[in-house]
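for the writeup, i need someone to sanity check this before i put it in the appendix. the sequnce is what the collaborator sent (i think, or maybe the updated version? ugh). structure was predicted straight from it, no edits. if anything looks off just tell me and ill rerun, i have time this weekend
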Amino acid sequence: MANRDMDNDTGNALSITLKEVLSSWEEKYLQWRRFSRTRKAFLSGESLQAWSDDARTQNGFMNPWKFDLYESILATAPAILLTKVTDFLVPPPKLTIDPNAFSYGMWLVPEGLKTPVAKLVDPVQQTLTPFLLPLSLMILVVIIVRATLAKEERSIQKNKMIRDAYFYLDGAHGLLPQTLFNVALIFLIILGIRGIEAPLVTVVCVVMMVISFIHEWWMVYKRVPRFLFSVAGHADGKLRKWTLFRKKTAIEKRWKRYRRIIPLGGLLILFLNFFVLQVCIWIIAVALASIQQLV
């Protein structure tokens, strides 16, 4: 009798676990369907940025923030999966760690934690690096809104419309190039950590990163402003050729301001991202090393 009860409990537990797993996968699949549906609608010309949040929800579309964030997660997923699979199939070599090699930040670390922290720096950096480009693009939207709208034009409603339009545009067009960039960058890091010399693979990774960079440059300097100027109601967003002897039109003045603000903002964003990335790497490495010491 006791054995029968135990078998029933085990069967119930397995049934509940299976239902939870299936429910989780079903939820992920529905999220993917909503993303695909939203992306297809936007690429077909639907002005989702002008829709209300209720209308988007009722029609099964993602809101712009979630859409772009989900695209960023999808873009980083292959790189993270590649890292996990590579670590499982070809574990990184156990190197003798010299804490002094990390002298630019090691002086802040207590003496007993220097070696554990030095061992954790590379794995933590490898995990956080794929989020660098998507994070940069997410922050870039703040500067893009300021570059698109003149000071007297800005309002809560108009800022939101431009921001939403950018998120939909970036989420719809950025999946493949951001994925290529992340995979190539992680591949180079994996090769470097393991000391593997693979010239052909290195060249392919560099080419992938260059293609991704060219696409992002085209998006930021061509596709994005033309689309956002149109959303803001400034002519059709196209720039006419002009000379120094003719007075600039309103749209030409907007292009000039946009092209002046974006490079400075982009450099500032990259600097802040790399600085914040390094700070996060050290904080996480020190925290993990401290937990390992306690355990």
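The chain has a mean pLDDT of 77. Residues 53 and 63 are 7 Å apart (CA to CA).
thx in advance!!
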